[in-house]
């Protein structure tokens, strides 16, 4: 009863004055998984302290009833921050970039126009880059581990799609230092996990290195201390 009462009152108070007992942000995920890495990179850039709560994806812990309470689709990452629980890595990074606008690296720009450009390239990442990058990395890295035959047609069509996307990036990056403008932003950050999978783990580095501006961009963004910390998690 006491605990319940405390919880109910805690929720009431926190809705009025914000979180009272500030606890460390919990990031549910796995250190090797791309989507939690996207969130971790953002939290490091914003100097937000967090704890990684490991979810054993190979054991299927993300499909168990307790976890489905946190994420109805049974995927990682999930964030718990005070009395908030939420999922979808790109929604989470937007939240922290905005919430801590004045802390750590500015990832959203100063003007509405900066923001719109960053949002545009964030959407490009989510809707043009992510699918072929995910499919290609999955086939090369995980299909066999999961007892499936790598699908050569998927590998071929994903590479073709990525080639077109990266040609667009090459053009963009010949005119602008970063995707979202002249400064590192969420648009670049969001690419780190799957680009790393492709370049460092799947032997597909040539897709990036064969393009001068894309290659320089990758060199730059992947050497950020935040990303190095993510890889050490
Ligand atoms: N759009 C979601 C995707 C979440 C997602 O697909 N997570 C992957 C890791 S990158 C996962 O949980 N995979 C486990 C599975 O598919 O069983 C996000 O960005 O958070
Ligand atoms: C990723 O691969 C590149 C070569 O393509 C290498 O220079 C770099 O050190 C690698 N990074 C990590 C973190 O392993």
From TrEMBL:
Keywords: Transferase. GO terms for biological process: glutathione metabolic process; response to toxic substance. One of its GO terms (molecular function) is glutathione binding. Its EC number is 2.5.1.18. GO terms for cellular component: cytoplasm. Residues 111-233 form the GST C-terminal domain. It holds the Pfam family GST_N. It comes from the Eukaryota. The keyword Ligase does not apply. Residues 23-104 form the GST N-terminal domain. It catalyses: RX + glutathione = an S-substituted glutathione + a halide anion + H(+). The keyword Transferase applies. It is an enzyme of class 2 (transferase). Belongs to the GST superfamily. Phi family. This is glutathione transferase.
